[in-house]
Amino acid sequence: MFRRLIIVSSIAVLLAGTAALAQGFRGRPGLRDGLGQGAFAGGRLERLKQTLNLTDAQVNGIRALEENRRKEMESLRQEMQPKGQALRQLLQQPNPNPTDVGNATLALRETRERVRNVSQRFISGVKGLLTPDQLQKLPKRFQ
């Protein structure tokens, strides 16, 4: 009975995680942007420059931060793909081993945590380049 409860609970949690992974990071702009084209693709940096009245030095600093972030996120994305695929394959088995499923989930979770850390470091770096007045005007998604 206890084993069945653990297996069912593990599968329920993992299916929820797999569903979130299958959707990608569409619901979280910071993560999706970091894994895709970059947080400042499509004129976002220009809008931020106008909104906050950024200097050229600040813009260059943000571009450097974004480039570092993009490189880190790309390697993390490449790391996440096989981990997610391995988890999906385990879950498709008729009777998955709970230990293997748990280990695969933990491996994927660790990589997701590293993605969050990269995004947080990026935002902290951007904030470090701004003056107190600019921080007051900073859009909410960066706070």
Written description of the protein model:
This protein has 143 residues and is mostly helical. It has one domain. Helix content is 78%, strand content 0%. It has six helices and no strands. It has helices spanning 2-22, 29-35, 44-52, 56-92, 98-129, 132-137. The longest helix has 37 residues, at 56-92. The protein is elongated. The model is unreliable at 25-37 (pLDDT under 50).
Short summary:
By secondary structure, this protein is an all-alpha fold.
Tell me, what's the shape?
A: elongated
Oligomer: single chain
**Cα Rg:** 19 Å
Structural class: mainly alpha
How many E-type strands? Answer: 0
Elements, N to C (H/E): HHHHHH
Range of strand content = under 5%
pLDDT averaged residue by residue: 80
**Biggest β-sheet: count, sense, barrel?**
none
Which residues sit in consecutive blocks of at least 5 with pLDDT less than 50?
A: 25-37
- In helices, the fraction of residues equals over 70%
| Number of continuous helical runs | 6
**Total number of distinct structural domains:** 1
Question: How far apart, in Å, are the first and last alpha carbons?
Answer: 47 Å
What characteristics describe this protein?
single chain, 143 residues, mainly alpha, 78% helix
